[in-house]
Amino acid sequence: LGLESDLRRAGNGDEFELYFQPKLDLATDRVIGAEALIRWQHPTRGMVSPAEFIPLAEETGLIWDIGAWTFMEACRRLAGWIEQGIPIPSVSVNLSPRQFQDARLVGFVRSVVDASGIPPDRLELELTEGAMIGDIEKAVTILNGLKDVGVRLSIDDFGTGYSSLAYLKRFPIDTLKIDRSFVRDIVKSSTDPAIVGTIVNLAESLGFDTIAEGVETVEQAEMLRQQRCTRIQGYLISRPLPVEAFEAFMRARV
Ligand code: G
Ligand code: G
Ligand code: MN
Ligand code: NA
Question: Considering only CA atoms, which residue is closest to atom 20 of ligand 2?
Answer without folding.
Answer: 214
